[in-house]
Design brief:
- With about 130 residues, the chain is mainly alpha-helical.
- The chain has three helices and five strands, in the order βββαββαα.
- The chain has helices at about 25-30, 50-85, 95-134, and strands at about 1-5, 10, 20, 35-40, 40-45.
- It has a three-stranded antiparallel sheet with strand order 2-1-3, with no helix packed on it. Strands 4-5 form a two-stranded antiparallel ribbon.
- Helix 2 (about 50-85) runs antiparallel to helix 3.
Length: about 130
């Protein structure tokens, strides 16, 4: 059984003091991990303003970190290609081959940063609207 304290803390166990037992729906939300507590009530966090934007921003941040790692690896490969030279079977130099990959990643990085900026702007507007309603 899940219970909620007067201070809005959720715990599993036996009832203590004036803690109330969560409803079945609230329990499902707690088990899913997608909940927030507002005024001692458990709500679906996915319904909160800005949730989708925050989720996408987190995904973008992960993608950006991965791209930076890939760029670092390609930089090392490019340095080796500068030192050692060589060409692929189609005649493209390794340096050009790696540079094309770097250019594609930088373009993707630019697109992600633009999308992130737009989402942060939307999130800021949602926050302002929510604060105006209060």
């Amino acid at each position: 059984m899940f219970y909620i304290t007067q201070s809005g803390q959720i715990y599993s166990g036996d009832q203590q003091n004036n803690d109330r037992q969560l409803t079945e729906e609230e329990t499902k939300l707690v088990r899913s991990g997608k909940f927030t507590v507002i005024d001692n009530q458990v709500f679906d966090v996915t319904l909160q303003p800005g949730y989708a934007q925050n989720q996408r921003i987190n995904e973008i941040n992960n993608e950006i970190a991965n791209i930076h790692n890939e760029l670092d690896n390609l930089d090392l490969k490019s340095i080796r290609a500068l030192r050692e030279g060589g060409t692929l079977e189609n005649g493209t130099t390794y340096l050009d081959f790696y540079q094309n990959q770097i250019d594609e990643l930088r373009e993707k990085l630019s697109e992600l940063n633009t999308e992130k900026t737009e989402l942060e702007s939307e999130l800021s507007q949602l926050t302002e609207e929510t604060n105006d309603i209060s």
